[in-house]
């Protein structure tokens, strides 16, 4: 139950984190918003306005007396669906074109501007016409409504005329036959024959009377197809949402598209991007995030950057895993390692400021140059006792540089040098004895190594230092790279104490501007220098 409650409490935090990750892609969100606003503005100002006007026609069936109820309702006499198809047909469009003064070939174009609808449960046809001007819209709707009525009335009148003619064609032979029977009756003398002819004459008279009545009813039919109940008038405003709404709608849609793009970019982005992602990938806390700073000295001045380094140093000092051994390895996952050198130097200065004997070891033997980038204290050069180490390696035998860290005091630097066999040098007994200086009370050793994923040098030192600090830019470092670093460090027997994040572009060209090859002279080649035993380190002082 506690786990469920904890999960429910973490859901808002997870949602907040996802929203923050999406909003990090400001370029995508801003581009989507700008594109939406431009599209809305184009539709608002670039497209021509359109106007729509409507007229309505009440459709009726032909009848003798429209005021007499025949028992059949009008909607039963009229197939309104067929009437709607007729109203939208070519014949009505041709008549409307003539009423508008257009040629017959323009009928199809006029049909594209017309829409005929039927309100539910009515026998009303609504003619909606769209045009570029209000007047043209009203004229088009009225023209189509009147053209439909004219066409329907002509069709009804034509049908009635054909029916009347058909009945007349039936009536004429009957009338002639009746006249023949009358002549025959006048000539007959017998009563029996005369009664037979009179009966036939009466039968013909009934048929003639019925046909005559039918013809009279057809001629009396009112062939009016319907009435215009609503006359179209010029509209006062154009159709559409209007300029402000179109621009606002474009902005909303563009913002939605931009957020969708940012969300997809976040989902498929291989880089870590955030401190939370770095912490999950390394399974270690984020010790600090360095602010942006312009190019300058490697050691931070007394400003926000220096305070951030002090914060990281204090967190490490109170970490029990580091306090037991006080051996720290500073590395980057990949890259040139310039930011790792900055972090290592400033953390060493923080330990010196805390009153420890701090030693910075530059274990980057492939591209050394840290000594040329740090200020030396007066008479800050000394040599290791014994010159070359016992196993014949050229490093760390050589000089020891005392670095002036300003108000933080001083600390010792063992500068790196180029050697032929890097792996043999880093695993030598002399290197092990050098790092074991941290076993002395109040002593801290910080080791700077090349990027973990570029060379295996850092892994050769992991089992000697135990604690590792990973320096990375979350915007350019992939999550898989951080996970790979953690797996390599765990497999080598070490542990990641935490990560220090930095923004991109920090002193990328410092190595190019400040790095210089520092030769390691033999002890006899350095006059006036004091020979110092390996286990003596200068204490930090103000």
UniProtKB/TrEMBL annotation:
Record has Repeat as a keyword: no
The keyword Ubl conjugation is annotated on this UniProt entry: no
Classification via SUPFAM superfamilies: P-loop containing nucleoside triphosphate hydrolases
Membrane-spanning parts: 245-264
Region of interest (Disordered), residue spans: 503-542
Domain of life: Bacteria
Keywords: Membrane, Transmembrane, Transmembrane helix
Biased composition (Basic residues): 504-516
InterPro entries (UniProt xref): Bact_polysacc_biosynth/exp, P-loop_NTPase
Full protein name: Lipopolysaccharide biosynthesis protein
Organism annotation: Streptomyces carpinensis
């Amino acid at each position: 139950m506690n786990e469920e409650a904890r999960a429910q409490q973490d859901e808002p935090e997870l949602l907040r984190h996802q929203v923050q990750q999406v909003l990090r892609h400001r370029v995508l969100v801003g581009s989507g918003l700008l594109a939406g606003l431009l599209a809305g503005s184009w539709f608002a100002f670039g497209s021509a306005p359109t106007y729509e006007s409507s007229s309505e026609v009440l459709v009726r069936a032909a009848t003798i007396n429209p005021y007499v109820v025949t028992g059949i309702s009008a909607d039963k006499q009229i197939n309104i669906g067929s009437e709607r198809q007729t109203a939208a047909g070519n014949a009505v469009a041709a008549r409307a074109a003539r009423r508008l003064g257009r040629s017959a070939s323009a009928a199809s174009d006029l049909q594209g501007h017309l829409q005929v609808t039927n309100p539910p449960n009515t026998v009303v046809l609504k003619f909606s016409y769209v045009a570029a001007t209000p007047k043209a819209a009203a004229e088009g709707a009225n023209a189509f409504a009147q053209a439909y009525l004219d066409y329907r009335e002509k069709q009804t009148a034509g049908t009635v005329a054909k029916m009347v003619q058909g009945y007349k064609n039936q009536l004429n032979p009957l009338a002639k036959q009746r006249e023949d029977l009358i002549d025959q009756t006048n000539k007959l003398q017998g009563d029996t024959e005369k009664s037979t002819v009179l009966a036939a004459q009466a039968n013909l008279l009934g048929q003639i009377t019925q046909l005559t009545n039918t013809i009279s009813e057809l001629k009396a039919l009112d062939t009016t197809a319907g009435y215009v109940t609503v006359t179209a008038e010029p509209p006062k405003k154009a159709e559409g949402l209007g300029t402000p709404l179109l621009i606002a709608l474009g902005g909303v849609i563009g913002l939605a598209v931009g957020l969708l793009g940012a969300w997809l970019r976040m989902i498929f982005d291989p880089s870590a991007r955030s401190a939370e992602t770095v912490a999950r990938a390394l399974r270690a806390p984020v010790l600090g995030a360095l602010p942006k700073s312009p190019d300058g000295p490697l050691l931070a001045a007394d400003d926000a950057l220096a305070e951030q380094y002090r914060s990281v140093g204090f967190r490490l000092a109170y970490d029990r895993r580091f306090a037991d051994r006080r051996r720290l390895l500073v590395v980057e996952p990949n890259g040139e390692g310039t930011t790792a050198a900055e972090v290592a130097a400033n953390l060493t200065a923080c330990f010196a400021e805390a009153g420890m004997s701090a030693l910075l070891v530059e274990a980057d033997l492939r591209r050394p140059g840290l000594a040329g980038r740090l200020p030396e204290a007066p008479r800050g050069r000394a040599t290791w006792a014994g010159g070359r180490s016992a196993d014949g390696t050229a490093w760390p035998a050589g000089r020891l540089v005392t670095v002036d860290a300003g108000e933080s005091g001083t600390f010792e630097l063992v500068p790196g040098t180029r050697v032929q066999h890097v792996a043999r040098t880093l695993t030598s007994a002399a290197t092990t004895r050098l790092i074991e200086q941290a076993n002395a009370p109040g002593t801290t050793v910080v080791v700077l190594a090349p990027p973990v994923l570029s060379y295996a040098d850092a892994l050769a030192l992991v089992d000697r230092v135990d604690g590792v600090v990973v320096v990375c830019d979350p915007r350019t470092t992939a999550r898989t790279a951080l996970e790979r670093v953690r797996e390599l460090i765990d497999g080598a027997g070490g542990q990641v104490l935490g990560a220090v994040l930095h923004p991109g572009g920090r002193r990328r060209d410092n190595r190019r501007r400040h790095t210089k090859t520092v030769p390691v002279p033999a002890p006899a080649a350095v006059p006036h220098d004091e020979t110092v035993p390996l286990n003596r380190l200068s204490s930090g002082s103000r």
